[in-house]
Amino acid sequence: MKRTNLKVQNIVATTSLNVPVSLTKLARSQSNTEYNPETFPGLVLRIKKPKSAVLVFSSGNLVCTGTKSTGQVRQVIDIVIKQLKKINVNVKEKPKINVQNIVASGSINVMLNLNLLALELENTEYEPEQFPGLVYKLVEPTATFLLFTNGKLVCTGTKNKNQLEDSMRQLEKNIKEALKRMK
């Protein structure tokens, strides 16, 4: 099985600034925000470069989505801190970033018989009438894959590059073993 490189499509990361934030003030000072406290307690701050969205909560907690690397997450958090400085919110220490989820896409360059894989692999869901992909949950390391007949895949649920690589290796090993059993 020759794999094409996995490409990170999205990273979800959280951090705490350890200072309260006036969301009303932030919404008034920035045009790139969405804030409807009646429907959602956080403010959405859109960043153009790197393209991302940050949920800002009055507690100073942030959720960053849309970036493609941890370096970009750091960049985005620094941009948010600069914007907060404009409304007199001073972040004293460098916030610790916690990656919650990485979404990556790639291919194992093998045509897959999803009906047979659904029978051979544990922890799968496959309902082709509803969705063309097979959902395969790996337990160790924890990851969820969407597998398609053309060999393309999406992986979600990992928190760093090593987990992502480990889960890909485990997936390839499990598919190879399943293919052997099918012969």
Task: Summarize the structure in words.
The protein is of the alpha+beta class. It folds into two domains: 11-99, TATA-Binding Protein (2-Layer Sandwich); 108-182, TATA-Binding Protein (2-Layer Sandwich). The chain is 28% helix and 33% strand. It has a ten-stranded antiparallel beta sheet with strand order 2-3-4-5-1-6-10-9-8-7, with helices on one face. Strand 7 and strand 8 (134-138) form a beta hairpin. It starts with a strand and ends with a helix. 23% of the residues are buried. The mean pLDDT is 94.
Write the CATH fold name of the largest domain. Answer: TATA-Binding Protein
Give the CATH H-level superfamily of the largest domain: TATA-Binding Protein
What's the average pLDDT? 94
H/E topology pattern: EHEEEEHEHEEEEH
Main sheet attributes: strand count, strand direction, barrel closure: 10 strands, antiparallel
The strands making up the biggest β-sheet line up spatially as 2-3-4-5-1-6-10-9-8-7
Radius of gyration over C-alpha positions, nearest whole angstrom: 20 Å
Low-confidence stretches: none
First CA to last CA: what distance?
Answer: 16 Å
| Share in helix | 25-40%
Beta-strand portion reads 25-35%
